[in-house]
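Record type: monomer structure entry
Structure origin: computed from sequence
Chain ID: A
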Amino acid sequence: MRKLVAIAIIASFVLAGCQSTGNAIGTVFNPIIGTWTASALGVKTEMVYNSDKSTTETVTILGVSTTKNGRWDSNDTTIARTWSDGSLDVRFYSFSSKSNKLILSESSDGIAISYNRE
């Protein structure tokens, strides 16, 4: 019995030092949540997917930035974003390199853009 108490005390100290990654919706881990960036030909795109299902996308061209705000949802293959102007953006997604890269394409066999986790 003393061993169980000692193990419980040690476990509580170990778990007390754990921090949330912020990648959970309710109690389900979601690897999409986070900040993702891509750069090509002088254009930088930053996408933020928050655990409360809000999203922003900032595109910077030659130092001039524009930002869109909206809501997002996902299933096993797609991410759908509904922007504040009512427009809808749906992309197929996958991960590579242990979830450090998010790959988005407009179709399952289309041109893909790779975003790095920040």
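Annotation 1: Residues 2-16 form the longest helix (15 residues).
Annotation 2: The mean pLDDT is 81.
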